[in-house]
Every structure is written in structure tokens, then in C-alpha cells.
Amino acid sequence: MINMLMWFLYCRVQDFIYCPAILNIYSTFNLTIKSKSVISQKEQFSDIYPLNITDIIQAPRPLITSVNATDSSISVTWTSATTPITKCKIRYKRLNTESWTETADLVSSVESQFVIEGLQSFSVFDLSVSCFHGFGRWSDWSEETRVKTTESLPSAALSLSYYVDSDENSGIRRLVLLWKALDVTDARGLIRGYEVSYKPITQPSLKKTIHTSHLKAVVLVRSEEYEVSVCAYNSAGRSPDRRLTVDASRTHDVPAVRSLWVYSDGSSLWIRWEYEFTAVNISEFAIEWSSATDGEHRRWERVDGSTFTVRLPGIEAQQTYNISVFPICGSLAGPPNNISADLQHGALLDPVGFGLLNVSSSSVALRWSWKEAKPGVCVLQYRLVLTGPDQIQIFPDKQQHSFLYLHPNTKYSVHIHGETRDGNFTKASLDITTLLLDYEEMMRFAVPAVLLLLIFGIFSVLSRTVCREYLFPIIANPRYSLIGRWLLNPHLQGSDKICVLKLDGLFLMDQQMEKSVFVVSDHEDEVPLKTSETAEGTALWKPCSDDEESALTPSSLPEYVDLPFLPDSSGYVQTGQIPGERNSD
């Protein structure tokens, strides 16, 4: 480092005769800078610079003496030094903004005043003043003064949404109203509360009004149309009313969000969810959270419909929070999905009851449930993992899952893994073996086989009956016949008695009948024969007593024998002889 001494040498362009008059506003100088090294004692001179006093004189710094604000303007008063001031200007900006707004040059004097118009109500502004002599340089800006404009009437109506919550068991209907807080530019002041009015359209005299400081209201309604109006108010007055006509007899198909989960990063809570896009176009999501010990102090956050992850600010340690997420579609809203969490553990839910729901040859269905608990670690997410690459995330609104396209008769392992910032851990596991054949597959094979056997059996029985009837007719066995046993009895002997059967007295002849039927009995005590007409002809039968009837066996039942008609020349029949032959006696 070179140590140098420097001198400023200046001389007046014109001669002067009075020393104090050397420096005045009209003076002009030539400035030369002389430098000298302390070590080498070498001197150097700079170039000559012309210098006008009027160019370097600066006006004194003004002082703001008073500030008065209305809802849209600020009146500023300031003073300058005794030196005459020709003009001033004011700069101002809203709090927490970077850019300043400057006014045009203002004609000023020793004490001046100016009113800044068109400011935002209930807003904080910083302002300062700078002045000018008419020559030289502008003064430095005065010290900044902070002022706040007053409140005015809210300028905009609320953004209102609703949904109808119906309890099928009790039949109670609740109308849930949600609205969005006004922007600062629209609120124009501190919102003190909200006024909610509702009345049945058919009975306007039943109008009811409630006041609340929250952004949600729940009222009991009946199944009819209602007219609802909501407005915000501050110390200056009310905002314009937002009116809706609500049909409380029907609900709208705005589904709730799904896969809701909360995790902690140590200093704040992060909430995330999923939404299944349907015909309903979701415009935004409303998030509500409050401490479990202080349900009256609720906080809200609104995000657009394409955002699915939000950081919740203002989370305190050792506090449990109840969090709800509402889908919003214009004037319609959906039911909330709720979850509890704290800063230490994240979501206060734990999967339990992990087990098998169903198994087949190509799929496995698993089930589990959730219970409120404080996990030992902060879980970022849970995943259901099948042996191999197949894995899915599981959330409190999901309690079962099926893995498809598996191999038959194969062993698989399924795990529930928890993911933390430090690594993963296994919450539960299960070993499963798929079936060789499914019940449906067995039925597909068994039913046709049983039907085929049944058809074959029926065909066999029918074919056997038909074949026996036409190809193998039944031949009568004489051993089971009275006549046959009588004829086959070798001990029977003939007698000389001629037995004549007079057919004319026994048969009722019918000219159209082709056959006659008579009964042959081996009993000696004959009883009169009776006749009966059947569909096939005339039958002769002998009545018997109850004892005789019960004592008959199948072989002793009367037999009906078909005989051809006997011609008139038949004569008589003698035992053991052929008709026409005479007895030797």
C-alpha cells in the first residue's frame, strides 16, 4: 500500500478582492488534485476540473410535521429551512412493497401541504419529502413517515358455496355454507364478522339470521327450497349481499377428495390429497384446520383446483390439529375429508388388522383398517408391497386392495411398508399361496361332466326299456300262473265225467268285441260268476271274502285269459279229448 498525501488546489477564474466572497453560489473554480507519496516524496497533479458552486449546492432536508389520513387519501404537511424553496416532491409506497410512487414537482414554500388521493382503504403507507432551491441539487429525502388509511365499506360480495348433508337414519338435513374471505383490496378494513340469513321461499316469515366470525356456517333445513344471503361487515358498514337459491331436497354429486394424508417436516405440516376428475370441474380446494383444544380459532387456506399439496402455516408443537379439505365447484361444494395430525408424528393414524380377504388362482384380495394412534415415528406414507415390483400407496380412505394376474399355485409375500425421513420399516406382512384351480374353474369342468353323465344315464334307461319292449319281449312264466301250475301238475288225473262249458250262458257277447275274457279257477266250490265291462272287453270274476282276498298271493290272483270267439259248431270240450271225438264209453 502506498501512503500518499493529497491537496485540493483551486483558483478562481476571475480575480477577487474580498476573501469571504470567494465561495458564493455564483463562483466558478478550476479544481486540481495534488498527491504526494510519503515514502518517495514524489508529487503528482491531476487534470484540471471546472467546478461551479451552483452545481454542488444541495437544498436542506425537509421535515414532515403532520400526516392526516382518510379511507382513500393522506394529507402531508412539511417545512424547509429558511432558505427559499421553489419546489418539492413526495414519494410513497404500500407496506411490504418495493417500488415507490413519486408525485410531480410541487410548488412549495417554507411550509407546504399536499393531499395524496386514490389510495387503498385500510392500508399502511410509507412516505417522505424532498425539496429543491431552484438551482443546485435536490435535498435528501426526509425521514420516512408511516401512516394507515381508514376503513371503508367492503366493495365486493363474498364467493359463496354450499352442499346439503343428509342423515338417512334421523332424516335431518344440514345446509353447509362456505365462503371465501375478501381480499384486502375488497375488504377495505378489518372484517368484524359475517351475517347469514336464510328463509324458505314458500314461507318468507320464517326467515332466520345468524352472525359468525368463521368462514363456514351450518344450519338445519327441511326438504324444500331456501333463499340464502351472506355478507361481510367492518366498522364502516356491510358488503353487498351474496344471494343463492338452494334446493335442500336434493344433494349434488361433488365427490370428496381421496387419499388424504399429512406428514411433518419438523417445523410445519404438509397435507396432500388426490382427486378423481369427473364431469364436475373443481375450481379450487378449501382447507380448514384448527387445534383440537381450541375449535373456535379456525384457519383457512384456498388453493386452485390443480394444487394437491399445501403447507399449513402457524403450526405449534404439542398441539393436535383437525384438518378438513373441501372441493369447491363454483357455487357447489363437496363433503370434506378429515384427518388429525400433530407436528411430532404427522398423521395420527395407524393401519391394523392386516389380513387376507380372498384368494384365487390369479388374484389376491387383502384388507386392513385404520385406528387413531400416535405412531412411534413420523410416517411420510404407507405402501402395500407384493413380492416383486408391484406396490401401491395406501391411505385412510382405502381399506382393501386386490393384486391381479398372479400365477396359480405360487407363494407370494405381501408387506405394509412405512416410509420415514430416515428409511423404511415393515409394519405388517403376510405369506399367501394362490390356488391351483378356482371354484369357478372347477364348476366350469364339473357341471358339463355331471350333465353329460346325467344325459347318458337317462339315455341308457330309455334305450334299455325300448330295446326290451321291442327286441326282447317278456315271455310269461307258467310257474307263476294258476292255470300253468294246474297244467304242469303231473298228479292230475282225468275222470269219466264230462264237463261241458256252455259259453252262451256265461258271456255277454258284443258284436264289436274281438275277444272274450273268462276266469278259470281251481276251486271246486264254485260261486256264480260276475261280469264287468272294461276298456278292453267283458271280464268274468268271482267275488271273495276279505280273508280270502288278503290271503291271496301274487300267484293266486285271478287271471284274465284272452280267447278267440268260439264258433257255433264248437260243440263241447271233454277233459283230455279233442272236440269231435267220442268217448269209448
Structural class: mainly beta
Q: What is the annotated CATH architecture of the domain at 159-247?
A: Sandwich
Number of strands: 39
How many separate helices? 6
**Helix share of residues?**
under 10%
Largest sheet composition? 6 strands, antiparallel
Ends: how far apart?
188 Å
Q: Return the CATH topology of the domain at 159-247.
A: Immunoglobulin-like
Low-confidence runs (pLDDT<50, min 5 residues)? Answer: 505-585
Strand residues, percent = 35-45%
Radius of gyration: 59 Å
CATH class of the domain at 159-247, named: Mainly Beta
The CATH homologous superfamily of the domain at 159-247: Immunoglobulins
Broad shape: elongated
Mean pLDDT: 78
Pfam families: fn3
Domain Fibronectin type-III: 59-152, 254-351
Keywords: Membrane, Repeat, Transmembrane, Transmembrane helix
InterPro entries: ECM_Regulatory_Proteins, FN3_dom, FN3_sf, Ig-like_fold
Give the topology, please:
Blueprint: E1 4-12, E2 28-37, E3 43-45, E4 49-52, H1 53-56, E5 63-69, E6 74-79, E7 87-94, E8 101-102, E9 106-107, E10 111-116, E11 124-132, E12 145-148, E13 159-166, E14 173-180, H2 184-187, E15 193-200, E16 208-212, E17 216-221, E18 225-233, E19 242-247, E20 258-264, E21 269-274, E22 284-291, E23 294-304, E24 309-312, E25 320-329, E26 332-333, E27 337-342, E28 346-347, E29 349-359, E30 364-372, E31 381-386, E32 391-394, E33 400-403, E34 411-420, E35 423-433, H3 439-470, H4 482-488, H5 503-506, E36 516-518, E37 530-533, E38 538-541, H6 546-551, E39 561-563
Antiparallel strand pairs: 1-2, 2-3, 2-4, 5-6, 6-10, 7-8, 7-9, 7-11, 11-12, 13-14, 14-17, 15-16, 15-18, 18-19, 20-21, 21-24, 22-23, 22-25, 25-26, 25-27, 27-28, 29-30, 30-33, 31-32, 31-34, 34-35, 36-39, 37-38
